[in-house]
Automatic annotation (TrEMBL), chains A, B:
<dbReference type="Pfam" id="PF00532">
    <property type="entry name" value="Peripla_BP_1"/>
</dbReference>
<keyword id="KW-0804">Transcription</keyword>
<feature type="domain" description="HTH lacI-type">
    <location>
        <begin position="2"/>
        <end position="56"/>
    </location>
</feature>
<dbReference type="GO" id="GO:0000976">
    <property type="term" value="F:transcription cis-regulatory region binding"/>
</dbReference>
<dbReference type="Pfam" id="PF00356">
    <property type="entry name" value="LacI"/>
</dbReference>
<dbReference type="InterPro" id="IPR028082">
    <property type="entry name" value="Peripla_BP_I"/>
</dbReference>
<dbReference type="InterPro" id="IPR001761">
    <property type="entry name" value="Peripla_BP/Lac1_sug-bd_dom"/>
</dbReference>
<keyword id="KW-0238">DNA-binding</keyword>
<protein>
    <submittedName>
        <fullName>Bacterial regulatory s, lacI family protein</fullName>
    </submittedName>
</protein>
<dbReference type="GO" id="GO:0003700">
    <property type="term" value="F:DNA-binding transcription factor activity"/>
</dbReference>
<dbReference type="InterPro" id="IPR010982">
    <property type="entry name" value="Lambda_DNA-bd_dom_sf"/>
</dbReference>
<dbReference type="InterPro" id="IPR000843">
    <property type="entry name" value="HTH_LacI"/>
</dbReference>
<keyword id="KW-0805">Transcription regulation</keyword>
Length: 313, 313
DNA sequence: ATGAAAGCGCTAACAT
DNA sequence: ATGTTAGCGCTTTCAT
């Protein structure tokens, strides 16, 4: 592989002139430019990215930490991020965490080593205080409210929509509400927000035996319906963490020859539209786009979008 | 940020000794090692990845070119790739192509620039002959049969399963078969394989007006059913490119109060299991895992797995 | 076991 | 407008 020095030698110009040509800078005469470009073409030369990155002090890779599961939350977020990255010249590096703190810490160390110029956490097991310690080494964007921590945040403000959702259900005189969550009960801010909204509307906590976590798919919804229906047969509503999960619930009831309880989805996927049940759109695609944008900036920023309650007429 | 030279200076040892400590090499005395490690800890030093990569001549990034759409094919493949990459020390870089040849060419150029140490093409718009020209710059793995080209290949051998599928349908005395494809008709080897298998079984080509491409979702299936049913009302079977797409077809018929035609899926997703229609499992997760493995190797290799016909009893 | 020094290939400040 | 050269931070021969 020829280097910039080979081009310099063979063109009769210096390394810096070649560099100028490569980077389309000013102060290169037409003849110089042409001579250099001719040799470049002749030797089939391309500049080495590794050398460039070292010289520049950073590369153009943005790491995206995600638990590596298939929940639509991550898909939509990732699609938004990729969409924004597409024309930016930056690359998205997938960093699966499996919610493992050791792994997450390793990614933070890599940020410090300049293996990435920024990091986006779509979720994290590590406490925010730890993430904050690494913000000095590069932009760190969290897809949740980071409170007072010196960490950028781009997220969806869910509380109002959850509140509106439960008020809507209260209107419908629903009595026994099952709640399906993504992760295990207390772990995530999202779960807390749901529980808080529920309590605010109904003035009591959700029955523990009607709450299940770990839902990521249609099938999970199906199984959860089975389990919960066995526990309590008069459930008249399922508040779920995804339209497809709600659809799984419905399928179970239909397969049993029962009428489906009231369904409530999230993510505004196709199924809630087709089956005409209410859902919440958290605008994750938009969040992803913005998260990427912030990742490129050098300042700490906080943005929130409003989750949107969608009720079919 | 301290550099290796700072560590050398402050520890009283040379740069090379520090380097040896960092890389756990032989020929470092206990006292030297301890002295160096102490300073490393004191200065909170970590080696710079960019410098390492330049010195080593390559980085640990594997680019994965994919069209950036949501078809389960790419998800499953990507999941397999990520699964294999997880413990490897290598990173997966997402390279959306939108089937754009210019974009794909740019990724190949980046391979040449050593921005990636290998490239996996889950799909490509560029001809194989062009890809082959870049194989000299790094391992290139295609997820399809690459014939005689000097390109690694890891893919699923679909023909036999397609043949078996149509034979199965012939057994059922199906007459009017609609065919739903991923991309537009002639573009992909997959489409050709389907058409060839069809013709071999039924001794004539599929009716052109019963073939539609561009299917990626439930909704696409729904719309396609609508369109095709309007064109011809006696379709008695839909051979689709995905279980969820087949499910969309079914939904349309049900919504019209009609009985669903026979469905045939692909990808062996949950829906074919729940609704008990036949499907084909192309084992993309496994293909992805293997593709990654080959990406790390320096030799050109070809692997194929057998697609599997799955018929519920 | 340890160190000196020559790369790796490019950028950019400085000089002319 | 063009050239010289000192980095960028690490790895790796080659001496000692």
């Amino acid at each position: 592989m020829p280097t910039i020095r080979d081009i310099a030698r063979q063109s009769g110009y210096s390394v810096s002139t070649v560099s100028r040509v490569l980077n389309h800078q000013k102060y290169v005469s037409k003849p110089a430019q042409q001579a250099v470009e001719k040799v470049i073409k002749a030797l089939d030369y391309v500049p080495n990215s590794l050398a460039r990155d070292l010289s520049f002090g950073q590369n153009k890779n943005i790491g995206v930490v995600l638990p590596h599961n298939d929940h639509p939350y991550f898909n939509q977020l990732l699609n938004g991020i990729m969409d924004a990255a597409f024309t930016s010249g930056y690359h998205i590096v997938l960093l699966p965490s499996e919610y493992n703190q050791t792994v997450e810490l390793d990614y933070l160390e890599q940020l410090k080593r300049k293996n990435f110029s920024a990091l986006i956490f779509t979720s994290h097991g590590l406490p925010l205080s730890v993430l904050a310690q690494y913000a000095q080494y590069g932009q760190i964007v969290c897809c949740e409210d980071t409170g007072d921590y010196h960490l950028s945040a781009v997220y969806s403000n869910r509380e109002p929509a959850y509140l509106a959702a439960f008020k809507h259900l209260a209107t419908l005189k629903v009595r026994q509400i099952a709640i399906l969550l993504s992760r295990n009960l207390e772990q995530s801010p999202t779960s807390s927000a749901i529980m808080a909204a529920y309590q605010q509307v109904f003035h009591h906590k959700p029955a523990e035996k009607l709450v299940i976590g770990g839902m990521t798919s249609f099938n999970d919804g199906y199984q959860a319906a089975k389990t919960l229906h066995a526990r309590q047969s008069d459930i008249d509503c399922f508040f779920t963490n995804g339209d497809d999960i709600a659809t799984g619930v419905r399928q179970y009831y239909l397969d049993q020859g029962l009428t489906s309880p009231l369904l409530f989805g999230q993510e505004n996927q196709l199924s809630s539209f087709l089956l005409q049940f209410p859902t919440i759109d958290h605008h994750f695609f938009t969040v992803g786009q913005k998260a990427f944008e912030v990742a490129l900036s050098t300042e700490h920023q906080k943005f929130s979008f409003e989750s949107e309650l969608i009720v079919p007429k």
